[in-house]
Records
---
Amino acid sequence: MSEDEHDRRIDYIEFTSTDLEATKHFYSEVFGWEFTDYGPDYTSFQDGRLAGGFTKGKAGGGSPLVVLFASNLDTVQAAVEKWGVKTFNPHSFPGGRRFHFKDPGGNELAVWAEK
Protein backbone atom coordinates (compact mmCIF):
# COMPACT_ATOMS: atom_id res chain seq x y z
CA MET A 1 0.00 0.00 0.00
CA SER A 2 1.42 3.40 -0.93
CA GLU A 3 1.76 6.19 1.62
CA ASP A 4 -1.16 8.03 -0.02
CA GLU A 5 -3.38 4.91 0.20
CA HIS A 6 -2.28 4.45 3.82
CA ASP A 7 -2.92 8.10 4.78
CA ARG A 8 -5.55 8.65 7.52
CA ARG A 9 -6.33 4.94 7.99
CA ILE A 10 -6.25 2.83 11.12
CA ASP A 11 -2.67 1.65 11.38
CA TYR A 12 -1.96 0.49 14.92
CA ILE A 13 -3.78 -0.39 18.13
CA GLU A 14 -2.42 -0.21 21.68
CA PHE A 15 -3.52 -2.07 24.79
CA THR A 16 -2.42 -1.90 28.42
CA SER A 17 -1.04 -4.92 30.25
CA THR A 18 -0.17 -5.53 33.90
CA ASP A 19 2.26 -8.31 32.86
CA LEU A 20 3.99 -7.83 29.52
CA GLU A 21 5.87 -11.14 29.61
CA ALA A 22 2.71 -13.17 30.24
CA THR A 23 0.86 -11.16 27.60
CA LYS A 24 3.58 -11.80 25.00
CA HIS A 25 3.68 -15.50 25.83
CA PHE A 26 -0.11 -15.84 25.61
CA TYR A 27 -0.53 -14.08 22.26
CA SER A 28 2.55 -15.74 20.81
CA GLU A 29 1.41 -19.25 21.74
CA VAL A 30 -2.32 -18.89 21.06
CA PHE A 31 -2.34 -16.58 18.03
CA GLY A 32 1.21 -16.75 16.64
CA TRP A 33 1.92 -13.03 17.10
CA GLU A 34 5.53 -11.84 16.92
CA PHE A 35 6.86 -9.24 19.36
CA THR A 36 9.57 -6.57 19.46
CA ASP A 37 10.43 -4.98 22.80
CA TYR A 38 11.07 -1.25 23.11
CA GLY A 39 12.31 -0.99 26.67
CA PRO A 40 10.87 -2.61 29.80
CA ASP A 41 7.42 -1.02 29.55
CA TYR A 42 6.48 -1.43 25.88
CA THR A 43 6.29 -4.21 23.32
CA SER A 44 5.04 -4.07 19.75
CA PHE A 45 3.30 -6.95 17.99
CA GLN A 46 2.63 -8.08 14.44
CA ASP A 47 -0.24 -10.46 13.83
CA GLY A 48 0.53 -10.88 10.13
CA ARG A 49 -1.91 -8.17 9.05
CA LEU A 50 -2.13 -5.48 11.73
CA ALA A 51 0.46 -4.06 14.09
CA GLY A 52 -0.06 -2.95 17.64
CA GLY A 53 1.50 -2.75 21.03
CA PHE A 54 1.13 -3.32 24.73
CA THR A 55 2.21 -0.74 27.28
CA LYS A 56 2.67 -1.60 30.92
CA GLY A 57 -0.29 -0.25 32.86
CA LYS A 58 -2.91 -1.00 35.47
CA ALA A 59 -5.64 -3.56 34.94
CA GLY A 60 -8.75 -2.18 33.30
CA GLY A 61 -6.71 0.64 31.80
CA GLY A 62 -9.58 1.53 29.51
CA SER A 63 -10.31 1.02 25.87
CA PRO A 64 -7.60 0.09 23.39
CA LEU A 65 -5.90 3.06 21.74
CA VAL A 66 -6.54 3.15 18.00
CA VAL A 67 -3.70 4.82 16.10
CA LEU A 68 -4.19 6.38 12.67
CA PHE A 69 -1.40 7.01 10.17
CA ALA A 70 -0.81 10.41 8.54
CA SER A 71 1.47 11.32 5.66
CA ASN A 72 1.72 14.82 7.17
CA LEU A 73 1.20 14.92 10.92
CA ASP A 74 1.07 18.72 11.15
CA THR A 75 -1.67 18.94 8.51
CA VAL A 76 -3.83 16.35 10.26
CA GLN A 77 -3.25 17.93 13.67
CA ALA A 78 -4.36 21.30 12.27
CA ALA A 79 -7.48 19.67 10.77
CA VAL A 80 -8.36 18.04 14.11
CA GLU A 81 -7.89 21.32 15.97
CA LYS A 82 -9.97 23.21 13.37
CA TRP A 83 -12.94 21.20 14.66
CA GLY A 84 -12.30 22.61 18.12
CA VAL A 85 -10.86 19.32 19.30
CA LYS A 86 -7.80 19.71 21.55
CA THR A 87 -4.73 17.61 20.83
CA PHE A 88 -2.38 16.42 23.57
CA ASN A 89 0.60 14.21 24.39
CA PRO A 90 2.69 15.15 21.32
CA HIS A 91 5.91 13.15 21.33
CA SER A 92 8.62 11.56 19.25
CA PHE A 93 9.40 7.85 19.43
CA PRO A 94 11.63 5.42 17.53
CA GLY A 95 10.17 5.60 14.05
CA GLY A 96 8.26 8.87 14.13
CA ARG A 97 6.07 11.36 15.97
CA ARG A 98 2.48 11.34 17.20
CA PHE A 99 -0.23 13.19 19.07
CA HIS A 100 -3.47 12.16 20.80
CA PHE A 101 -6.96 13.64 20.74
CA LYS A 102 -10.46 12.89 22.02
CA ASP A 103 -13.10 12.87 19.31
CA PRO A 104 -16.45 14.64 19.81
CA GLY A 105 -17.86 11.40 21.27
CA GLY A 106 -15.11 11.20 23.90
CA ASN A 107 -13.01 8.44 22.31
CA GLU A 108 -9.23 8.84 22.59
CA LEU A 109 -7.26 8.16 19.42
CA ALA A 110 -3.73 8.93 18.27
CA VAL A 111 -2.23 9.93 14.92
CA TRP A 112 1.35 9.14 13.95
CA ALA A 113 3.71 9.94 11.08
CA GLU A 114 7.16 8.75 10.18
CA LYS A 115 8.52 12.34 10.08
---
Amino acid sequence: MNQLELLGTINRESSLTEVQEYVAKVLEARGFADEPITDSMLMFLEEAGELAKAVRKSATTMSVDVDRLENYDTVDSEVADVFIVLLAICNQFGINLFDALKAKETKNCGRNWSFER
Protein backbone atom coordinates (compact mmCIF):
# COMPACT_ATOMS: atom_id res chain seq x y z
CA MET A 1 0.00 0.00 0.00
CA ASN A 2 1.44 3.40 -0.95
CA GLN A 3 1.50 6.45 1.32
CA LEU A 4 -1.60 8.04 -0.22
CA GLU A 5 -3.56 4.81 0.18
CA LEU A 6 -2.39 4.61 3.79
CA LEU A 7 -3.55 8.18 4.38
CA GLY A 8 -6.98 7.13 3.13
CA THR A 9 -7.23 4.63 5.99
CA ILE A 10 -7.68 7.38 8.60
CA ASN A 11 -10.29 10.09 8.93
CA ARG A 12 -11.85 12.38 11.55
CA GLU A 13 -13.58 9.40 13.17
CA SER A 14 -10.36 7.40 13.51
CA SER A 15 -9.37 6.49 17.05
CA LEU A 16 -6.04 7.52 18.51
CA THR A 17 -4.98 3.88 18.30
CA GLU A 18 -5.86 3.80 14.59
CA VAL A 19 -3.85 6.98 13.98
CA GLN A 20 -0.93 5.46 15.87
CA GLU A 21 -1.16 2.33 13.70
CA TYR A 22 -1.25 4.54 10.59
CA VAL A 23 1.95 6.31 11.69
CA ALA A 24 3.67 2.95 12.17
CA LYS A 25 2.69 1.85 8.65
CA VAL A 26 3.57 5.12 6.94
CA LEU A 27 6.97 5.33 8.65
CA GLU A 28 7.65 1.80 7.47
CA ALA A 29 6.68 2.80 3.92
CA ARG A 30 9.02 5.79 4.16
CA GLY A 31 11.92 3.64 5.41
CA PHE A 32 12.02 4.98 8.97
CA ALA A 33 10.65 1.95 10.83
CA ASP A 34 14.04 0.84 12.14
CA GLU A 35 15.34 4.24 13.27
CA PRO A 36 17.26 4.08 16.55
CA ILE A 37 15.32 5.57 19.46
CA THR A 38 18.07 8.19 19.89
CA ASP A 39 17.44 9.40 16.32
CA SER A 40 13.71 9.55 16.98
CA MET A 41 14.24 11.52 20.18
CA LEU A 42 16.52 13.99 18.44
CA MET A 43 13.94 14.35 15.66
CA PHE A 44 11.25 14.98 18.29
CA LEU A 45 13.32 17.75 19.86
CA GLU A 46 14.05 19.26 16.45
CA GLU A 47 10.36 19.24 15.57
CA ALA A 48 9.50 20.78 18.96
CA GLY A 49 11.98 23.56 18.18
CA GLU A 50 10.35 24.14 14.81
CA LEU A 51 6.99 24.33 16.58
CA ALA A 52 8.43 26.95 18.92
CA LYS A 53 9.61 28.98 15.92
CA ALA A 54 6.17 28.76 14.31
CA VAL A 55 4.47 29.87 17.54
CA ARG A 56 6.94 32.73 17.89
CA LYS A 57 6.23 33.83 14.33
CA SER A 58 2.45 33.55 14.67
CA ALA A 59 1.59 34.42 18.25
CA THR A 60 4.19 36.80 19.63
CA THR A 61 5.65 40.19 18.90
CA MET A 62 9.16 38.73 18.89
CA SER A 63 11.13 39.44 15.76
CA VAL A 64 12.00 36.79 13.21
CA ASP A 65 14.66 36.70 10.53
CA VAL A 66 12.69 37.97 7.52
CA ASP A 67 15.34 36.62 5.15
CA ARG A 68 14.52 33.12 6.42
CA LEU A 69 10.74 33.55 6.70
CA GLU A 70 10.10 30.73 4.24
CA ASN A 71 11.84 28.38 6.71
CA TYR A 72 9.12 28.97 9.32
CA ASP A 73 6.15 26.67 8.80
CA THR A 74 2.67 27.04 10.28
CA VAL A 75 1.82 26.08 13.85
CA ASP A 76 -0.65 23.41 12.70
CA SER A 77 1.94 21.83 10.41
CA GLU A 78 4.57 21.77 13.14
CA VAL A 79 2.11 20.37 15.71
CA ALA A 80 1.40 17.55 13.27
CA ASP A 81 5.14 16.85 12.88
CA VAL A 82 5.61 16.72 16.67
CA PHE A 83 2.62 14.38 17.00
CA ILE A 84 3.88 12.05 14.25
CA VAL A 85 7.30 11.73 15.87
CA LEU A 86 5.75 11.29 19.33
CA LEU A 87 3.65 8.41 17.98
CA ALA A 88 6.76 6.95 16.37
CA ILE A 89 8.51 6.99 19.76
CA CYS A 90 5.46 5.36 21.36
CA ASN A 91 5.56 2.65 18.71
CA GLN A 92 9.26 2.04 19.30
CA PHE A 93 8.55 1.43 22.99
CA GLY A 94 5.35 -0.55 22.38
CA ILE A 95 3.28 2.15 24.12
CA ASN A 96 -0.36 2.62 23.16
CA LEU A 97 -0.70 6.40 23.56
CA PHE A 98 -4.41 6.22 24.37
CA ASP A 99 -3.80 3.73 27.17
CA ALA A 100 -0.88 5.78 28.51
CA LEU A 101 -2.94 8.97 28.40
CA LYS A 102 -5.88 7.34 30.17
CA ALA A 103 -3.63 5.89 32.90
CA LYS A 104 -1.81 9.19 33.43
CA GLU A 105 -5.04 11.21 33.57
CA THR A 106 -6.49 8.72 36.06
CA LYS A 107 -3.51 9.53 38.32
CA ASN A 108 -3.84 13.25 37.61
CA CYS A 109 -7.50 13.21 38.67
CA GLY A 110 -6.35 12.33 42.18
CA ARG A 111 -3.86 15.20 42.42
CA ASN A 112 -4.45 18.55 44.08
CA TRP A 113 -4.12 21.18 41.37
CA SER A 114 -4.03 24.35 43.46
CA PHE A 115 -1.54 26.98 42.37
CA GLU A 116 -0.29 30.08 44.08
CA ARG A 117 0.31 33.14 41.96
